[in-house]
Amino acid sequence: MLADDPGRIQVMETLNVKICELKNLPPRSSTSPKYRSTYCTVNLDQEQIYSTATVKNNFNPYFGAEYGFEIPRPFRYLNICIFDKNESLTAVNGANGNGALGKVALAKSDLHKYSGKDHWLPIVPVDANSEVRGKLLLEINQVGKELTIKLKEGSELSVSQKRDCDSFTLISLEYPEGSKNKAINREKFPIHQTKTLRKTSAPQFDESCCFNVENLNLSELEVKFSVWHESTGVWGNVFLGEVRVPLGSNFNGTKKHKAWWYLQPRSLEARDEVSAKGSVRLFIRYSSEIIIPDVYYEPLRLMLGKVPKSGPVTASPAFLLGEICEDKTSAAIPLVRVLLKTNRLSKVIRELAKLEMDTILDVHTLFRGNSLLSKCVDELMKLTGKFYLKSFLKEHIDKIYEESRNCEIDPAKLDNAADRVGNLKALMNYTSNILNSVTSSALNCPSVISDVLSELRNSAMQRYPDRTEIQYSVVAGFILLRLVAPAILSPESFGLRNDGGKSDNVTRTLTLVSKAVQSVGNVLSNSTEQVRFKEPYMTEMHVKFGYDPYLKEMKMFLDTVSSSNVIRSFVPAELLKGFLKKRVTQPPSLFGRRSTNRRYFKLTMEELSYGKDPMFASHHIPVSEILSVEYLKNGDELDFRDVFQITASDRQLCLQAASSVEAKEWMDALRFVLSRRSARPSSEFSSGYTDAKSLERGMGGSVATDKVKDLPVNINVTREMEKVHCLLLKNRDKLDRLHENCRQELTSADSLRRLEAKCRMDTIDELIDCVTRLEQEHRHQIKQAYQHNLYGSEFAPIGEEIVLRPKGPFYPELFVSSGSFAVPPSPATRH
Asked: Which Pfam families match (predicted)?
């Protein structure tokens, strides 16, 4: 979630969810087929964001579906809902056979507990007690003997994802659940029912009721607000949630209480850990950053791209960042993005490559390890190569999924040995088609990747001028072994698939094809062009693809992708595509004109196109003719949520997405395209996606080369710098130890070691100074920004713990509670 004002702090949350598998699902009743056909959905509260493919007839289905997205709005729970798709029920009577089997609900405040590890979680039933969202603004005031209770308004109420409420509220005095006191006298203290407000998710109740509490001990009582949706259906009114306000703890001597409260489930009793509904294995990564204005990150950003002119690369901030981080990938991700955006990546990679070649012991393992250099190049290819992979690989991956053929060639895994001939033929066909597409894609390889591969190859050529196999090994090691082969093996990790539904046949076929591609890369890395297979059953694959003509074509491919002087072909990258609802802004006609039309939209760097058929676009809007994009806010009508407007020179489109996440993805992509259509200079320091107005303010763009500008990749430098800041802060003790080691090296008899130690000490001192100043400003900005967000305000309702910074060993936890602001400890006490 971004702040509209660039001078304010930004709260940005990212969620990655992998739904791995289910186990021990219960069988259906005797009147239905025994096995279940299940699919899962990812929900923020009640809003469905993604849905997996259906795995049929299995009590232990494997999905492997992976989704990653930025969270566009406040939420309380991440819900993984499991549905049973009973096709026989649909076929018999045409009814909807999708029944909710259960769900896993994780509170936002608990997500950090599950982040980064696999967890088996029990599936619990879905009922009215668990499907609660929304909040109430209420006021309780005691004047003498009178207790006045006023319900002012509600917000974010809904009876289902796409339906507004006909809501009313029951207000009553109660003893707390489990209290030994006798029940309230309802004749003296009747339940007050508000009027019903129809077709709204934000009802304005403005109703009051009074009670004479002269002889009651208020500290033993609570006020209960029970919210319902009025329904004439078979099951009657629908429970939406309740609020219980203890009178003793919320007055604090003031005799008046006014606050926002979250609605809660009807019962807060803990559920049993063992569930008869089965369990689900999830892998979750949740991150939350609070980002202060970008000007405060600039000293650290300028320092990050420096390479000492008179000192070794080991004294550079980039190298030191990788040295103190145990997980090199965590350092490489923000480092590559910042250096790429500021056009300093090639220089840093060149110096890191020289260092690795000077220290390598076995030339055959050159750039094959998990060094900072290898992780940086990996991240660069994954970041900038996503659309490149889609251009030549996705159709083959989709075909393997659709056909789901058995391509097993290991005799030990075959029930019938005679099947091996047919399986081998199918496997060779898949592999041949993929390798042909790879070798034909050289001119489509992004220039940024080619430039880096060219730097690495030239470094190897200068060091080993007579060994061409090492030069091919360097290029093949990255482009084939660390990009293409992993993308084949795990398409969901590279954005080629994300809905899961990978069968055993598909998994095995992808594994064997990936092995074949790796074998070609290994042949090119060997001076004798002979590779020994660990698996004898792969021999035919090696004979087929390990020699000419495939080997010759692959060498030409590697020569082309590692040349920085080749003119690249321009292939419009499909930034985003999918169905949206095109809303008709004119009033309905007498003949019942539809208010929405479903159309298939496709966005590239050049144009936005759409039509009824995904294969044919009947309308085209050049990016140069798009004037603006903006969210439309029409009250709180659910039917008008997730709507955005595109204004072009000749038309105006009002579009509705299926979810808030999808709407944000389209808005971000459109703003990104608009920010790149102009070649005018802007500030080097970019805060991410921008629109035309922010370009005029100088808040977007980059001074990077045109090769970087033309990449269809968004890089939020400010956010990446916050990640670097957090890494340095987390590993501050390691920086201190490095500083002490360098101080001891100053007494060495070796002049080169003394020079290196002095350079490293100077860099560490500067890093520590930058981090300390940035953290002090961070604390100040957060305190200023959240002073007004008291516990009970609209942005921090009562009912859940409010944490203003993500929890972790290196973060201060800032809590808002009881109207006070908790100041975090000073940096000195945290390190």
From this structure: C2, PH, RasGAP
